[in-house]
Amino acid sequence: MSVLFISDLHLCSSRPEINGIFFDFLAGGVRGAKALYILGDLFDYWAGDDDLADPFNAAVAGALAQCALSTPVYFLRGNRDFLIGERFAAAAGTSLIDDPTLIQADGVPMLLAHGDTLCTDDSAYQRFREEVRSRAWIDSFLATPLAQRKREVEALREQSEREKRNKPAAIMDVNAEAVASLLRAHDYPRLIHGHTHRPAQHLHTLDGRRCERWVLGAWHEGGSVLVCERGICRVEDLRSRN
Ligand code: MN
């Protein structure tokens, strides 16, 4: 049986084609898999679990819950949806997992991460990340009205898109030393992450040990899933049926 990994779908109600691929995937493509792991940025942004009242968000949670009746679904939060909480997890039938989380799949240790913690060359982003992940920031943010939160998150997202255009491409990729120390700290597992939107299979030789690092693809024109079965991983593209 296979284990499936996806990330960086950036779901929002204005991308019907991608949403269709996702709903088809949950209803059919996941069938028979041992588990589905969502490694962050499922949503384009998440302003708080009270946004489950939004019909699109409720539809996503409902489809996940339906899928989870036959296949366990695990959710690791990304930088866009780090405000996902237990209320969403319960509605979607998923279990929240930490970043990073080490699992065993067919005897292969696999370390799962969103990927943003590895982009240590982007020090402005890392400072921002530290601030917004603090309990104090989260509590005070969630205490403001949902409509205001959505406006703020959308403004932040636009600001980050503008800044990204001015940042050198290299600083938005993972830092080699950050990858090496993560691999060392977890005894040289296979590393699976997303975030950078640079899908690839990398082979690292570190301290005489060989480690695979799989970078998941973002869902832009189509979808993409990493399928790992009997210790071997491969990428499958998901296309719209129309
Ligand atoms: Mn991300």
Tags for this model:
242 residues, alpha/beta, Purple Acid Phosphatase, chain A, domain 2, 6-stranded mixed beta sheet, 5-stranded mixed beta sheet, 7 helices, 11 strands, binds manganese (II) ion
| Range of helix content | 25-40%
CATH topology description: Purple Acid Phosphatase, chain A, domain 2
| Average of per-residue pLDDT values | 96
Terminal Cα separation, in Å?
Answer: 29 Å
Domains, number: 1
Q: What does the radius of gyration come to?
A: 17 Å
Strand content: 15-25%
Main pleated-sheet profile: 6 strands, mixed
Describe the strand arrangement of the main beta sheet, using strand numbers: 4-3-2-1-10-11
Helix/strand class = alpha/beta
| Molecules bound to protein | manganese (II) ion
Elements, N to C (H/E): EHEHEHEEEHHHHEEEEE
Q: Architecture, according to CATH? A: 4-Layer Sandwich
